[in-house]
Design brief:
- The chain is mainly beta.
- It has a single domain, classed as Glutamine Phosphoribosylpyrophosphate, subunit 1, domain 1, CATH 3.60.20.
- It has 5 helices and 14 strands.
- It has a 7-stranded mixed β-sheet. Strands 6-7-8-9-10 form a 5-stranded antiparallel β-sheet.
Length: 238
Amino acid sequence: MKPVSLFNDIASTSYPGRGIVIGKSADGTKAVIAYFIMGRSENSRNRVFVETSDGIKTQAFDPSKLVDPSLIIYSPVRVLGNKTIVTNGDQTDTIYELMNQQMTFEQSLRTREFEPDAPNYTPRISGIVKCGDGKMNYAMSILKSADGNPECCERYTFSYDSPVAGLGRFIHTYMGDGNPLPSFEGEPTLVEIGNDDIDTFAKKIWDSLNEDNKVSLFVRYIDIATDKYESRIINKNK
């Protein structure tokens, strides 16, 4: 697979939905994580990311307009020891709790399936990054319906040991806009991560997202040698 521009890939469709990017900076010193959300409905667009002690959670921007919190209010990012979990739903908590009970990333996700939002049956996408002793590895997962058939849950896990500097993977919920929305297909896209500072990288992603549909973006850089991190949040609602 030939790497492509992350920013061009994001910009290639008006509605990739929710997306996770994980990779390693070109200088090999940082694990790079990005997570964004988009929305077509007023309820989905009425959100912001807010910081927590170890990650972020989604929150209604205008609580009076919140209709159904079940699939839009959750903690996308949590940290368990030297592992950072990032997902597009409340499976973040499932992974955190079950891995804390010595289950694996893949085992914990076997207790979940795609979202019950017929007719889209939005995939649950998840990622986990482990840093320590100057090394990193990561994995990504997608739980999706069988081409829109909710009778079957298809489960795919992709693991990346000793990632190549300057490259990463990008997975998102939808292949593009539509009704119903078409689920992501195939292996996470191989993308160029580059060596931008965190603010430049975050701005490039934000600017690549469709202006009408983008809602919030989170970016974290983790120093692979020390496990220390810095994060950025951009919210459309202010």
